[in-house]
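## retry 2 of 3
previous attempt timed out at serialization; input unchanged, resubmitting
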Amino acid sequence: MIHNYLVEQYHNIITNLLHHAEPELAHNIAIKCLRNLYTPKIEIDKSILEGLSLNINNIAFDHPIGLAGGFDKHAEVFDKLGLFGFRFVEIGSVVTNPKYGNPKPRIFRLKEYYAIINRYGFNSKGLDYACKNIQSLSANSILGLSMGKMLNLSI
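## retry succeeded, writing output
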């Protein structure tokens, strides 16, 4: 009981701090905290997940709740994200060579809708960087990779 209370208070403090920061800065802080701080495994009440298991292409999912690509763009914290109970984590979108993406600002909050508009524009540290991270970290969930196709257009 006390553990749940502390987790809730921790969540409220962190969320309030991050919501006062510029959105891209808040995202970068979240990634750095996940990468550098101890992350306990969060146990999910199995009773709420009953009947949600599925099998897709011979991959067994205990439940279909996962994290889509866009948060861990560079494969830096997928191991920690799996500890939060996500059954799958998708990294990326990753492009072959490092790209800066669109000019800032490129993330916008719509507070009244609890939503974010993402206009990153395929910012990526590149495929080599992502592959090194994938090889050095242990996935705690099924790992997916979103690859972005970059065209070299001459106008």
